[in-house]
Amino acid sequence: MKNGVKTAVLLAGMAGIVMLAGQVLGGSSGLTIAFLIALVMVGGSYWFSATLAIRSARAVEATPQQLPEYFQIMTELTQLAGTPMPKLYVSPEQQPNAFATGRNPSNAAICVTEGLLRTLSWAEIRGVLAHELAHVKNRDILTGSVAAAIATAISYAANMIMWSGALGGQRRDNNDGNPIIAIAFAMLAPMAAGVLQMAISRSREFEADRTAAQMIGDGEPLASALAKLHGFSLQVQSNVAPPQASHYIVNPLNNRQVAFSNMFATHPNVDERIRRLQSGEWRQAM
Prior knowledge:
Number of helices: 9
Largest sheet: 4 strands, mixed
Strand order of the largest sheet: 1-2-4-3
Shape: elongated
C-alpha cells in the first residue's frame, strides 16, 4: 500500500512537470499542448510497450518442447498468483537477466536471457520468474510505462524550450520572455523527471521482491539469484538499450555506470534487496 501511494504521488509530480513545461513554452496554449502530448505518449506506451520491449530484446517466443522446465515453473507460479499464463520469451543476450512486460495480466509477457538459463539453477530461476510475475500481478509494468512516457514528454518539452524563441528573449505570456527561466527549466526539468522515474522503478523492485518471496514461501532462491545476476551484470557486457534498462530485474548497464550513479540508479541496492529477502521481512506483510 505504501509503495502504491508513493508511486501515485511520484506520477502526479511528473505530470505536474509536464504541465509546467507547456506553460513555460507556450503559456495557456502550451499547457494544453503538453497535456495532449503526454496523453498520446501514455496511450502509446500502454498499447505498444510489450511489443517494443520484446523487439528491443530480440527475443523469440519459447515453446514447452524447447524449455519444459520454464513452462512448468510458470504454470505453477500462475496458479499460486491467480494470474493468467503470460507468453514466455527467450532473448539471445548473454548477460543473465529477465524482464516482464505487457499492459495488464491478460496481455503479459516474461522474457529471460540465454545467459540466465545457462548460469542459474532452476530453483534460482523460479525465484526470478516469481519476481517477474509479481510485477505482472502488481501491474507495475503499466506504472513504469506511464512514468517513462511522461519523463520522455518532459525531455521533449525541455528540448523544445532550449531551441525555441524563449531563449532569444521573445516575449511569452507566461514568463515575460525571461530567458533565465527557460534555461533553468530546460536544464532542471529532465533531471527532476529522471529522479522521479527512477524512484518509481526502485520502489516497485522492492515490492516485487516481497511479493515473489510470499508467492513461493521462501526468499532465499531470489536472494541467491540476485547476487549472481548482479555479479554478472558487472562483468558481462549487455546490448540492452538504456530506455529499456529499468524493466530488467537487475540493471543490465551496471558495468557502464559513472560518477553519481547511485543517485540516478533505476534499481535499488542489490545488497539491500538481498538483506530484506534473507531477513524474512517479507513475512511481516503477509
